[in-house]
Amino acid sequence: MIHFEREVTEIELICAMLDEMQIVNIAINDEDGIPYVLPLSFSYEVKDNQLLVYTHFMKHGKKIDLLKKDPRVGLSFSLFNDFPDRKYKGHYHDYRSVMAKGTMEIVDYKDNPEVWERGYNLLYTCNHREIKPLSERTTIPVMYIGVITCDLKNVTAKSEFPLRTVEDVPFINVYEKEIDEVPFDISDIIAKRKAGQ
């Protein structure tokens, strides 16, 4: 990573970044060697030193065919905040990004109802909706839940503006700030990264 000082390694900060995001772009290995990329809504949880990403899709289509042949996937989550007419702290924009790689398991309710329902419920909460329990439905939705398992060592994240606490993660409105051309003091972050913390 060229700008190592922009790297975000703390899992609580990465989770706070994911909480701000609504779409994951998933790259699946296509037969022609060119990745097949699709944007999907998602939910997630961190458990046993792994990032588990949940998504959902219909029970047929190209992605299903490809995933059955090769479950390895790449994930890209991002947000971008542009303010080209109001430079702040030496910047004209800010961003958050999380990258990961893992494997996707395709879960059918009839085969694994517990995992399917866990993903189903998390998709509601991560999309800021109230969970509609399956017991209140007359039928089970005809869809798969995709469960992507990523070892935390395969998860990387970056931020243009320095992040020290969860409160730093949401974008600031630079138009509500005083004009400030003094660069961020990131000496503590640089020292921490150099020390390998």
Describe what this molecule looks like in 3D.
- This protein is of the alpha+beta class.
- The chain contains 4 helices and 8 strands, in the order αββββαββαββα.
- Strands 1, 2, 3, 4, 5, 6, 7 and 8 form an 8-stranded antiparallel beta sheet that branches.
- A hairpin with a 2-residue loop joins β3 and β4.
- The longest helix is centred in the middle third of the chain and has 14 residues, at 113-126.
- The chain is elongated and about 60 Å long.
Q: Which structural class do the helices and strands define?
A: alpha+beta
Number of helices: 4
Compressed to H and E, one letter per element, the order equals HEEEEHEEHEEH
Task: Give the proportion of residues in helices.
Answer: 10-25%
Task: Describe the main β-sheet briefly.
Answer: 8 strands, antiparallel
- Give the terminus-to-terminus CA distance: 15 Å
- The backbone outline, from C-alpha atoms, is elongated
Low-confidence stretches: none
Q: What share of the residues does DSSP label as strand, in percent? A: 25-35%
Gyration radius, rounded: 19 Å
Please provide the count of β strands: 8
